[in-house]
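testing teh design pipeline on a random one, pls ignore if ur not involved
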C-alpha cells in the first residue's frame, strides 16, 4: 500500500514556502529549526525528489516544490474541515483576534459566521487597530492572533492573501485633477502611505496630506466627500469610489500582502482553530496557483 503524506509535514512545508525561511517557519509552527529540517528531509525522501533550492539565506521552491504547494494547501484545508465536521469535543472559552479596520467590514462577517457555526460555545473577542499596533499587542500577549498587512518584512507570518493597492477618488468629484493633489492617508508608519508618497515624489507630482488617520472609515469619508484622494486595497473599495489608473496619470502601486501572526507566548487549540477558519475564508493565493495551471 502506498504510504500517505504526513499533514504535519505539509503544514511545515507551507510555512517555509510562505516565509521563505526554515528559521521563520519554525516560529510559525512552534517547532525547533532542527525539527523543521528533519520534517522536510523526510518529506523529500517520501516524494523521492528535492522540493527546496537554496538561494543565499532564503529557501526557494524547486519546480516540484511549486507543484506540491497547491496540493499541500488543499490537503490541509480538507483535513481541517473533516476534523471539524466529525469532532465530538466541543471547544469552549475565549479567543482574541486583532484585525485592521480596513478589513473588518469586508472580512469579519464571513470569519465570524464560519467560526461561530463550528464552535458555538467559543467567545470571539475582536480588536480593530492598525497592523503595527496589533503586532505590539501580540508581543504584549494581549491577543492570540492578528491579521496584518505587509507583514512579511516584520516577522514570521503566514501570508495567505494578496490584493492590489489602488488609488481611489470620489466618482462625483474631480479631486484627482487638482494641481496640488490633496491626500487622505494613514499614519506616517503606514506602508500604504509610504508607497503613495514615494510614487508621487518620483513623478514630481505636487501633493499635500490633508487628512491623516489610522481609521479606515475616516479616510473613506474624506474620499467620498470629494476632499481627497487615497490608496486602498481592492477589498476596501466602497460604493461611490472610483479607481484611478495610469490613464488618469496615477502610477501603479505595489501589491498588499495580508497574513496571520500568532502569539508565540502561548498556543491554544482555539487560536489554531480560528487561524484555520480565517485562512479557509480568505485565502486567495492557492486560488491564484490553480488559475495559473
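output:
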Amino acid at each position: 500500500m502506498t504510504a500517505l503524506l504526513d499533514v504535519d509535514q505539509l503544514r511545515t512545508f507551507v510555512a517555509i514556502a510562505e516565509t521563505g525561511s526554515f528559521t521563520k517557519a519554525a516560529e510559525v509552527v512552534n517547532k525547533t529549526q532542527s525539527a523543521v529540517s528533519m520534517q522536510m528531509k523526510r518529506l523529500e525522501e517520501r516524494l523521492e525528489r528535492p522540493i527546496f533550492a537554496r538561494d543565499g539565506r532564503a529557501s526557494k521552491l524547486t519546480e516540484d516544490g511549486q507543484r506540491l504547494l497547491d496540493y499541500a494547501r488543499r490537503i490541509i484545508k480538507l483535513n481541517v474541515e473533516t476534523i471539524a465536521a466529525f469532532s465530538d469535543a466541543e471547544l469552549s472559552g475565549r479567543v482574541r483576534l486583532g484585525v485592521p479596520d480596513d478589513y473588518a467590514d469586508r472580512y469579519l462577517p464571513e470569519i465570524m459566521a464560519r467560526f461561530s457555526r463550528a464552535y458555538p460555545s467559543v467567545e470571539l473577542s475582536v480588536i480593530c487597530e492598525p497592523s503595527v499596533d496589533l503586532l505590539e499587542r501580540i508581543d504584549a500577549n494581549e491577543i492570540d492572533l492578528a491579521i496584518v498587512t505587509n507583514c512579511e518584512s516584520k516577522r514570521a507570518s503566514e501570508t495567505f492573501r494578496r490584493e492590489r493597492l489602488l488609488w481611489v477618488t470620489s466618482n462625483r468629484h474631480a479631486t484627482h485633477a487638482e494641481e496640488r493633489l490633496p491626500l487622505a492617508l494613514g499614519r506616517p508608519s503606514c506602508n500604504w502611505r509610504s508607497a503613495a508618497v514615494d510614487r508621487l515624489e518620483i513623478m514630481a507630482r505636487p501633493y499635500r496630506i490633508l487628512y491623516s488617520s489610522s481609521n479606515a472609515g475616516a479616510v473613506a469619508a474624506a474620499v467620498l466627500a470629494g476632499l481627497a484622494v487615497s490608496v486602498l486595497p481592492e477589498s476596501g473599495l466602497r460604493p461611490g469610489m472610483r479607481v484611478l489608473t495610469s490613464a488618469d496619470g496615477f502610477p501603479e502601486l505595489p501589491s498588499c500582502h495580508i497574513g496571520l501572526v500568532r502569539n508565540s507566548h502561548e498556543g491554544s487549540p482555539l487560536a489554531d482553530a480560528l487561524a484555520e477558519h480565517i485562512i479557509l475564508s480568505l485565502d486567495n493565493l492557492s486560488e491564484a496557483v490553480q488559475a495559473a495551471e
